[in-house]
Amino acid sequence: MEKLINGTKRLIGLSMAGLAVMPAFAAEDGDDKKPMNILFIMCDDHSYQTISAYDSTFIKTPNIDRIAADGLRFTNSFVANSISGPSRACMLTGKHSFTNGFTDNSSSFDGSQQTFPKLLQKQGYETAVIGKWHLTSEPTGFNHWDILIGQGDYYNPTFICNGEKVQRKGYATNVTTDLALDWLENGRDAEKPFCLLLHHKAPHRTWMPDTCDLDLFSDSNFPLPATFYDNYDGRLAAAGQKMSISKDMDLVYDLKLADKDSTIHSRPDLEAWGRRMYNNMDAEQKRAWDAHYDVVIEKFKKAGLTGKELDAWKYQQYMRDYLRVITSVDRNVGRVLDYLEAEGLMDNTLIVYTSDQGFYMGEHGWFDKRWMYEESFRTPLIVRLPGGVSGESMAMVQNIDYAPTFLEAAGAKVPSDIHGCSFLPVLKGKKWKPNRDGVYYHYYEYPDEHAVKRHLGVRTETHKLIHFYEDGVWELYDLRNDKHELNNIYGEPGTEKVTAKLKKKLKKLQKQYGEQQFIAE
Ligand code: SGN
Ligand code: CA
User: Fold this and answer.
1) Containing H/E element for 475?
2) N or C, which terminus of the chain has less Cβ within 10 Å?
3) Which of 394, 412, 435 marks a domain boundary?
């Protein structure tokens, strides 16, 4: 196979001869028996707050909204473990973390286990993963893989293409999209249905924009979230975290104040990283970067902000960079949709847009994720099934459901050991009865840089029960009148019945999923 030198060079010479097995399936219903391709677009840390199909307070995302226009936007879409590697492992296997073995980002994925790409291959699919992988071990179950190393870099990132390291010049979101389009056009066997995992690293920390987007939002001022100055009353774990915009967001690293005369100093390790990120750029990229940030740096120095004024400045700066990165994501989603349209693939391609978890846009004063609180437990999920229904769905779906949904859409049998439940009926506007009563969650990564305690819990349509089991702390929220989850009512008189009911549900789910790590009492 020819080695890719840069993102735009064509992949040629993929030897598909002899592999042309016709898929043993047909679309489940409808007249069109063309096999269903699957395009699974996932961004890292993309909040539903910054997709205009969900919420247009901050940004317009016209291209992601194109998927939503003919697709279903899930409001109650949850993850099983709100952090990258674990979330990806849940999606690949359709199983909760302790069963798939990837409980936190220090794990390594056991690639010998069953995954939906492997099952799709058996079904005659050509599979590929391009972009962020973050599962440490080499991908298995893919005819083609071209992945970033770890988190990957925004500028001039190094990929591993089917086992070979190759650095590519350019901005990660553009390069990743180039590679995906190239595989669709030249790399795959067009006789077979495809399943493409197009997984962007953006908008992961440190939210570095493409040079062409640097001046966007410069004049925008965003309202501070209502909970920005949360005092964490009644929420012990929340009080102990290290993901506060005010205290933990780093001026040089996160907010890019790497001044040339080095007078701005921040946390030494992060400051060093911040300066290193800049040095990764080439001369032209640096010129564009400096033209923007040098001005920001000068203004910042003159302003001499402190206290709440400084907090507000950090929030605006964070939001501007994050939204610039989203602008590039959205533009690149548009390129892929344009391609599918031009190639007549929209009628037989299931398109999914999602993130590995939600993200805090200053709610509770935070950036990052990890918690079972709504902003990070929920994740955007927009699915366009050709011939399916559009609009908003309130169905309580979870990322362990993606694997069975893809398998069912491909006409494949869903193995009985998969925890998740196909929501294909929802996409078709039919009745859906999931195999669970409530949504189960378990987060394991403590201690780690953001100091979020291990916790598990259950959510129903109306309530959420969370257990920080290493501290013996419980939290209970009535989501009907406390959507920001500020009022922990666990142990309050009058909550005995609902608490007992939720604990019973939690136990039942733990039994159903064979939880081994911690059994709630
Ligand atoms: C990195 C980030 C963290 C982030 C984790 C997990 N720090 O460690 O802020 O929570 O990744 O993110 S950074 O300094 O490297 O940016 S995840 O999405 O990959 O799970
Ligand atoms: Ca992530």
Assistant:
1) strand 473-478
2) C
3) 435
SS3 category, 459: strand
CA of 295 to the centre of ligand 2 (A): 31
Residues 76 and 199 reside in one and the same domain: yes
Q: Digits of tens for pLDDT over the chain (521 positions)?
A: 223 323 332 222 222 222 222 333 334 444 456 899 999 999 999 999 999 999 999 999 999 999 999 999 999 999 999 999 999 999 999 999 999 999 999 999 999 999 999 999 999 999 999 999 999 999 999 999 999 999 999 999 999 999 999 999 999 999 999 999 999 999 999 999 999 999 999 999 999 999 999 999 999 999 999 999 999 999 999 999 999 999 999 999 999 999 999 999 999 999 999 989 899 999 999 999 999 999 999 999 999 999 999 999 999 999 999 999 999 999 999 999 999 999 999 999 999 999 999 999 999 999 999 999 999 999 999 999 999 999 999 999 999 999 999 999 999 999 999 999 999 999 999 999 999 999 999 999 999 999 999 999 999 999 999 999 999 999 999 999 999 999 999 999 999 999 999 999 999 999 999 997 777 66
Beta strands in 295-348 (DSSP E): none
Same domain, residue pair 183 and 69: yes
Q: How far is the CA of 83 from the centre of ligand 2 (A)?
A: 5
Domain CATH number, residue 147: 3.40.720.10
Measured distance CA(292)–CA(310) in Å, rounded: 20
> Ligand 1: which of 102, 105, 355, 357 to mutate, judged by most atoms within 8 Å of the beta carbon?
105
- 430, part of any domain: yes
Query: Residue 280, exposed/middle/buried by CB under 10 A (0-12, 13-18, 19+)?
Result: middle
Q: Residue 513's domain is classified under what CATH number?
A: 3.30.1120.10
**DSSP code per residue over 404-446:** HHHHHHTTPPPPTT--S---HHHHTT-----S-SSEEEEE---
Assess if residue 489 is contained within a domain: yes
- Is 83 near ligand 1, meaning CB less than 6 Å away? yes
The answer to whether residue 254 sits within a structural domain is: no
Residue nearest to atom 16 of ligand 1 (CA): 205
Q: Which of 383, 416, 435 is the last residue of a domain?
A: 435
Give me ligand 2 centre to Cα 173, in Å.
15
Q: Do 381 and 476 lie in a common domain?
A: no
Residue whose C-alpha is closest to residue 350's, from 399, 407, 400? 407
Count of CA atoms in the C-beta half-sphere (13 A) of 205: 22
Asked if the bond preceding 206 is cis, omega within 30° of 0, the reply is yes
Residue range(s) defining the domain that contains residue 22: 7-206+320-435
Residues 60 and 163 in one domain: yes
Q: Is residue 91 situated within a structural domain?
A: yes
